[in-house]
Here is the input.
Amino acid sequence: MATQAPPATVITESQPGARPRMTYDEFLAWAGEDTHAEWVKGEVYIYMPVNPIHQQIVDFLNTLLRLFIEANDLGWLMSGPAQTKMKETGREPDLFFVSRDNPGQLGQKYFDGAPDLIVEVVSDDSVSRDRADKFEEYEDAGVKEYWIIDPRPRRRRADFFQMGADGKYQPVPVGADGAYRSQVLPGFWLKVSWLWEEPLPKLLPTLEEIQGK
Here is the structure.
């Protein structure tokens, strides 16, 4: 029997019983590249399109991280709608990094395993999802580093978490210089104030500053 497409409505993860159910394979067969949806414990969640500020931050980090990762031959960076399958969820992070020694499997349709780093940029409809649901899922799956970037006006905030020896996320404050230094991307640092600049910083000079050139 063919799987019926979910209704084109936005359903939050706090609304039980309102979502279509299907297997992950059925979800992959249904979801198109332009579909902003995730699969959580057999249920499908459809989300609102992101706003321009959200997309600008994602594009900035995507390019900056990608250039650094490729220059240092560290692994692979992927962005939505790329999926990562972890235990009982198929998530579509804004960005996720997979190191060369990551034991997960990169297939044609999704990455099967826990990425080393996940970046989520907060939208109005994703606050509890990013800070609660995904936080717990990524921690439980063993994602080593999790960034939550909230660029919304009057809420500008960036939170960084790294996996501790106890398997729990530990918040990592920015340094006295206003920069966060990544654990899974050796040598990469990010000045948080860059994220709030209008317009955002030029990419190549920013990368040169990070690499100390």
